[in-house]
Amino acid sequence: MRCARALALLSSRPLPLPLPRGGRCPQRCRMLRYTSTFGLIIFSVALLILSFISFVSIKKDVNPRYGPNGGPRMYMFHAGFRSQVAMKYLDPAFTSLSSAINEDLKNSSKWKYNSTAFIQLRTEISHHIDIPHNFTLTRDSVKVGQLMHFDYSSHKYVYSIGENFRSLLPEVSPILNRRYNVCAVVGNSGILTGSLCGAQIEKYDFVFRCNFAPTEIFKKDVGRRTNMTTFNPSILEKYYNNLLTVQDRNNFFLSLKKLDGAILWIPAFFFYTSATVTRTLVDFFVEHRGQLKVQLAWPGNIMQYINNYWKTKQLSPKRLSTGILMYTLASSMCDQIHLYGFWPFGWDPNTGKELPYHYYDRKGTKFTTKWQESHQLPAEFKLLHKMHTEGLLKLTLSHCA
Ligand SMILES: *[C@@H]1O[C@H](CO)[C@@H](O)[C@H](O)[C@H]1NC(C)=O
Ligand SMILES: *[C@@H]1O[C@H](CO)[C@@H](O)[C@H](O)[C@H]1NC(C)=O
Ligand SMILES: *[C@@H]1O[C@H](CO)[C@@H](O)[C@H](O)[C@H]1NC(C)=O
Ligand SMILES: *[C@@H]1O[C@H](CO)[C@@H](O)[C@H](O)[C@H]1NC(C)=O
């Protein structure tokens, strides 16, 4: 990261020491000329070294291993400066990806759905994971006192299932025997900012969203309709101050109220850091039983199955993004899937302008490359784009109106 930024700084700065034009060159001036030649050589060497370092660190990202310890939070759709530099200048595959994307942007009506291929994909996925059943734990699938482990944390960490937690589980999976025609999976990339895709997104039969992303004030770009959203328990900590004040509790209650009958999909058993907040969350839901229409779903330890499927597609990051996870779930529920807000880079492919990483980030929020530690969003994106060209899904990267 630091390398990439240094590289940019160097190359954007004009070369120093302008030489006097014409005339004789006195001793001092010759000295200057030598100095500038020397400077140029140093600059080129530095550039080479920096490119090499970036190249090596990208190579290192190609084959990550599964680690038992995940970080505390799922970072999604951040666009890092390093990835921008990396993808633009160092990854030879980007040139072809970039021109393919340009073609898509020019004529999005060229995209064609291939239902044969999609049904094949759905069958393949179902060989690795029983999505309707693995979508959520149910009351019959756990026992009070049972110790749960966490997908991305050391086995020593446990969560003991209590009567309250069990009482919040559904009797049956809310997606059992549910089938929708065309679904939208909305990622949180800054590419949605100013897209005016809201009206289009509102028209889908079922809308998936990620990480309880706000919609109300961005409805022009992302729409409001939500039929399912993921809720990492750490959101309570980040946005609702752990429900420590009456105000925080009211805010959280109102946010849930807006979801109406949507599914709140709570991955509480991915990271051990969720354990404490999960207890706060459980208490809150028990206290407000009957006052909210939102349907709770609590997946168990399912990531190994999901990972196994994507491994067959040569995608095996330490952690898959929530976006691709939603696509995987959607594959069993929907006959056709369209993706919005899937774009992990820091520039707009339509205009080349800088983008925030989330559509809801405040202006001036700094890029983060935290996701690089565990996610591989550029690799995920490449795969999703390939699937787009095969008619398995439709990616929208352009503006809608
Ligand atoms: C876009 O592609 C479709 C189908 O290939 C074609 O009918 C249409 O004329 C194209 N439009 C433009 C603007 O190129
Ligand atoms: C649709 O997918 C199937 C299976 O992958 C493939 O055989 C077929 O050629 C595809 N059809 C089109 C029109 O691309
Ligand atoms: C996933 O589904 C299979 C088949 O129904 C079941 O045996 C397994 O216990 C489920 N696992 C989880 C974590 O839901
Ligand atoms: C999706 O949500 C909208 C409101 O947000 C609701 O009107 C619609 O019935 C829901 N669709 C399904 C399939 O649950």
From TrEMBL:
One of its GO terms (cellular component) is Golgi membrane. InterPro entries: Glyco_trans_29 (IPR001675), Glycosyltr_29_Sialyltrsf (IPR050943), GT29-like_sf (IPR038578), Sialyl_trans (IPR012163). Its main location: Golgi. GO terms for biological process: N-glycan processing; oligosaccharide metabolic process. Disulfide bonds join C183-C334. Keywords: Disulfide bond, Glycoprotein, Glycosyltransferase, Golgi apparatus, Membrane, Signal-anchor, Transferase, Transmembrane, Transmembrane helix. It comes from the Eukaryota. One of its GO terms (molecular function) is alpha-N-acetylneuraminate alpha-2,8-sialyltransferase activity. Coiled coil: none annotated. The keyword Calcium does not apply. It is found in: Golgi apparatus membrane. It is a single-pass type II membrane protein. PANTHER family: ALPHA-2,8-SIALYLTRANSFERASE, SIA-ALPHA-2,3-GAL-BETA-1,4-GLCNAC-R:ALPHA 2,8-SIALYLTRANSFERASE. Belongs to the glycosyltransferase 29 family. This is ST8 alpha-N-acetyl-neuraminide alpha-2,8-sialyltransferase 3.
